[in-house]
Write a structure and sequence with these properties.
This protein has 99 residues and is mainly α. The chain is built from four helices and no strands. It comes from Dufourea novaeangliae.
Length: 99
């Protein structure tokens, strides 16, 4: 367990008080407020671990974003080439030909 100085405890209390005020205001206006992780005093080791987790999350998000962009480009031509391609040539589909 990490012992923290009175200054750190005062800072933590001030932060929690501010969160409570913000939560009260948001919920009174009909909003939703969720604390994902309660504030706490961290050590240098905790800080380094958090930095590693953030870096991993960025890499995972970058891969997903790249995958999404590729799919959007492929689907932009508007032609599937499948069974529906023949439907475009049938009578009654003139609006698709005019586009």
């Amino acid at each position: 367990m990490t012992t923290s100085t009175p200054e750190k405890q005062d800072g933590l209390k001030a932060l929690n008080d501010a969160i409570n005020v913000i939560q009260t205001k948001i919920t009174s206006l009909g909003g939703v407020f969720n604390v994902q992780m309660a504030p706490k005093v961290v050590t240098a080791t905790d800080e380094a671990e958090l930095a590693k987790q953030m870096e991993r999350a960025e890499l995972e998000n970058a891969e997903v974003a790249g995958d999404d962009d590729e799919e959007e480009v492929e689907g932009m031509d508007g032609f599937s080439g499948g069974e529906d391609a023949e439907d475009d040539k049938k009578p009654g589909n003139e609006s698709q030909e005019e586009e």
